[in-house]
Specification:
Blueprint (H helix, E strand, L loop, with lengths): L1 H18 L7 H23 L8 E11 L3 E2 L18 E2 L4 E14 L3 E11 L4 E2 L10 E15 L5 E16 L12 E14 L3 E3 L2 E15 L11 E18 L5 E2 L33
Antiparallel strand pairs: 1-4, 1-12, 2-3, 4-5, 5-7, 6-7, 7-8, 8-9, 9-11, 10-11, 11-12, 12-13
Helix pairs in contact: 1-2
Length: 295
């Protein structure tokens, strides 16, 4: 039931994000509502991932960082205009770096001493919009994004002090553009796909909070996606979204019958006394049962 409630919260947050451009409110209020919805979605994804920790060997990462988008070149015939209506000489659309928040969930499918293979999902979003470096009335001034991508992660020396890894996957991308002032009929909102690949380093457990082992993660990922609607044609059909993030990593944990947390998934669960009857198989052997054993 908890998963159903959280799932409804995620859907409601996504709906609010997608439909935020249709609400007739001031720009400041719309920005505030969008930030609230993204933070709510971020927390909902993180909360939805946590109950799965009690079902096997898992990891949850909570990261923050920045995203960098390379420039796009305008197609022949397309141009940007300045505030007074003159054509700008610049033929490139450039972007400012932007803050990004993410949540990551992984579940181990193969676990060895030298490597581990995990499957999971990445969630990445922009609490603040990615802004174009040069504003133009006939092009969007900024856009927000959401990436939701299942992935496979290959980690080397998972129990080491530092565990490097590589990941790849693909999934859903959503862009929400700001309407250009010179294009009143512009319809914001672009749904597309994305590939993701990258690498990073995880640390061994650094602190324990309520007996939950927590380490750190530093990573670089490229979400290679379709384009937002710039209201201007560009030469490319795809764009790189380079995310440089880092943060906390709720480490690989297992739960045995007594619900004891262990941060060493490579070892077998400990045998607790409560798991066995308080008997001795040698001294408590019933002699009368010996005759029932065939010779």
């Amino acid at each position: 039931m908890n998963s159903i409630r959280v799932g409804r919260g995620i859907l409601q947050a996504l709906k609010l994000f997608v439909s935020s451009s249709d609400v007739a409110v001031s720009r400041a209020r719309a920005q505030k509502n969008k930030i609230k919805s993204l933070i709510g979605l971020f927390m909902a994804v993180a909360s939805w991932s946590l109950p799965a920790l009690a079902q096997g060997i898992n990891e949850v990462g909570l990261v923050i960082g920045g995203i960098v988008t390379p420039s796009q070149t305008l197609s022949p015939g397309a141009s940007l205009i300045g505030p007074i209506g003159t054509v700008l000489p610049n033929r490139d659309i450039t972007f400012d770096p932007s803050l990004t928040l993410g949540a990551e969930y992984d579940r181990a499918f193969v676990l060895r001493r030298k490597f581990a293979i995990d499957g999971g999902v990445d969630f990445l979003a922009s609490p603040f919009d990615v802004k174009l470096s040069q504003q133009s009335p006939n092009a969007i001034g900024q856009y927000a994004f959401i990436f939701l991508t299942p992935h496979v992660r290959v980690k080397f020396h998972p129990d080491g002090v530092f565990a490097p890894w590589l990941s790849f996957g693909g999934g859903y991308a959503r862009f929400l553009e700001k309407s250009p002032t010179a294009a009143p009929s512009f319809k914001p909102g672009t749904n597309t796909g994305t590939f993701v690949f990258g690498g990073g380093v995880d640390t061994r457990t650094v602190i324990q909070l309520f007996k939950i082992p927590i380490g750190f993660r530093v990573e670089v990922r490229d979400f290679y996606s379709g384009l937002p609607n710039y209201n201007q044609k560009v030469t490319g059909n795809l764009q790189n979204n380079l995310a440089f993030t880092g943060g906390l990593l709720i480490k690989r944990i297992t739960f045995d019958d007594s619900f004891r947390v262990s941060d060493n998934p490579g070892s077998l669960p400990s045998m607790t006394a409560s798991a066995f009857p308080d008997t001795n198989p040698l001294t408590d052997l019933n002699p009368s049962s010996m005759s029932a054993i065939p010779c």
